[in-house]
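in:
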């Protein structure tokens, strides 16, 4: 476990100097692998990443697979129950153009960027109160569609966390009326326009 960049470098140097060492890491270890070429690489629990409902997850998975494919000398193993999964297949084939077309169609269908602007409103507190307050936003922001759902990590220090999500077509943003409504929300609401994650 590396708590700092210096710790990570010590681990990387020890691994490089070993003749048969195994390096285990998360995606945070990837920047340290740019100038190494492992004989064999393994991506474990790929299906877990596929299940995360994140706008940019397919793109991140394609990047991860492409990167690991590029640096690995002999064998790249991907643990999955879905070997026919489209992103996996295209990344391992090195077909970036096919992935771009597929991802572009998916984003157009769901109004994801660049075709839509997601606005995530987060509230934290007692579960009943949080869900009631977020449900009220459906009427407040009509006629825009609002989805309400628990956060991926729905409990923080005993408080319940949930989100309300608006998907605004790019052609309708910026929207002065909507902006004013968002600004008038009490400060207990956290508003993110174009968030990195919808979780």
């Amino acid at each position: 476990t590396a708590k700092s960049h210096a710790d990570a470098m010590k681990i990387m140097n020890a691994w490089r100097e070993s003749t048969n060492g195994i390096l285990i890491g998360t995606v945070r270890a990837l920047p340290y692998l740019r100038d190494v070429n492992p004989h064999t690489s393994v991506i474990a629990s790929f299906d877990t990443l596929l299940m995360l409902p994140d706008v940019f997850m397919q793109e991140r998975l394609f990047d991860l697979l492409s990167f690991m494919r590029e640096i690995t000398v002999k064998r790249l193993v991907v643990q999955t129950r879905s070997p026919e999964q489209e992103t996996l297949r295209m990344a391992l084939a090195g077909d970036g153009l096919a992935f771009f077309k597929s991802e572009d169609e998916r984003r157009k269908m769901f109004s994801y960027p660049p075709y839509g602007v997601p606005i995530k409103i987060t509230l934290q507190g007692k579960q009943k109160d949080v869900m009631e307050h977020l449900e009220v936003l459906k009427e407040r922001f009509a006629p825009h569609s609002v989805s309400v759902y628990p956060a991926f990590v729905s409990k923080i220090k005993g408080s319940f966390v949930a989100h309300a999500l608006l998907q605004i077509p790019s052609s309708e943003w910026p929207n002065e009326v909507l902006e004013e409504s968002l600004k008038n929300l009490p400060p207990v609401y956290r508003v993110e326009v174009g968030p990195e994650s919808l979780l």
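note: The two ends are 26 Å apart (CA to CA).
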